[in-house]
């Protein structure tokens, strides 16, 4: 983890640096080393564990979207929740996110699932768990990542002003239940998964609501339209 810590930008290092010396992080590092030594394929690659933080400095966070754990198929995950690498088929939940964006903002669905354009504008695309074993969904839950990402959310809650939290599904809503609603906007909806999107994700209009709030607070709106090519 030491190398990953060094790669974090200064704004994150200032609030998260101590996390890397805590016992849970040492245990997590040892767990990941054992998994790799046993020949298991871990996603995303090590340099991308903290990609969400690398692309979205703390002092630039405008929106937080919380996911659960990385995609577990080869070539998919690259450190941003809901996002996949260029050339990878768009996952069903992201297809539904695009559908809601089209309904809300008349943005045509992108033909790729690479969301770095959002992250570079201040959309923190944070999974609760930052690694996974290939073909084993949720295999790294309960190993320590949740404690680290709780610290990330606390930092945004305490050190930022007027951030929009888009909490899709009960997992995200429970994880960020402590967010101060007097300082931030919290928008809740069912998860965009095909299993639940029709229960209230479609029609939630979170993208326009987020931008309306940001502009009202004197902050720049997010350009949700992705480039034609990643």
TrEMBL record:
Keyword Nucleotide-binding part of the UniProt annotation: no
Keyword terms: Cytoplasm, DNA damage, DNA repair, Glycosidase, Hydrolase
Entry's localization field: Cytoplasm
Domain spans labelled Uracil-DNA glycosylase-like: 54-214
GO molecular function (one): uracil DNA N-glycosylase activity
Residues at the catalytic site: 69 (proton acceptor)
Chief location: cytoplasm
Enzyme Commission number, as recorded: 3.2.2.27
InterPro entries linked: UDG_fam1 (IPR002043), Ura-DNA_Glyclase_AS (IPR018085), Uracil-DNA_glycosylase-like (IPR005122), Uracil-DNA_glycosylase-like_sf (IPR036895)
Enzyme class: hydrolase
Catalytic reaction annotation: Hydrolyzes single-stranded DNA or mismatched double-stranded DNA and polynucleotides, releasing free uracil
Family: Belongs to the uracil-DNA glycosylase (UDG) superfamily. UNG family.
Entry-linked NCBIfam families: PRK05254.1-1, PRK05254.1-2, PRK05254.1-4, PRK05254.1-5, ung
Role, per record: Excises uracil residues from the DNA which can arise as a result of misincorporation of dUMP residues by DNA polymerase or due to deamination of cytosine.
PANTHER family: URACIL-DNA GLYCOSYLASE
Protein name (record): Uracil-DNA glycosylase
Organism annotation: Rhizobium rhizophilum
Gene behind this protein: ung
């Amino acid at each position: 983890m030491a190398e990953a810590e060094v790669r974090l930008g200064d704004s994150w290092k200032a609030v998260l640096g101590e996390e890397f010396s805590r016992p849970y992080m040492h245990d997590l590092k040892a767990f990941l080393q054992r998994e790799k030594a046993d020949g298991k394929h871990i996603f995303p690659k090590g340099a991308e564990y903290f990609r969400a933080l690398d692309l979205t400095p703390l002092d630039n966070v405008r929106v937080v979207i919380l996911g659960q754990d990385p995609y577990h198929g080869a070539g998919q995950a690259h450190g941003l929740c809901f996002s996949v690498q260029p050339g990878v088929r768009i996952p069903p939940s992201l297809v539904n996110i695009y559908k809601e964006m089209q309904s809300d903002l008349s943005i045509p669905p992108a033909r790729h699932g690479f969301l770095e354009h959002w992250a570079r504008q201040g959309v923190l695309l944070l999974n609760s768990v930052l690694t996974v074993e290939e073909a084993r969904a949720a295999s790294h839950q309960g190993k320590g990542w949740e404690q680290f990402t709780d610290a990330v959310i606390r930092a945004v809650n305490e050190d930022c002003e007027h951030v929009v939290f888009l909490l899709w599904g009960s997992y995200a809503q429970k994880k960020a239940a402590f967010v101060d609603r007097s300082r931030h906007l919290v928008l809740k909806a069912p998860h965009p998964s095909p299993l639940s999107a029709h229960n209230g994700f479609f029609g939630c209009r979170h993208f326009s609501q987020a931008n309306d709030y940001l502009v009202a607070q004197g902050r720049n709106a997010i350009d949700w339209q992705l480039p034609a090519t990643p």
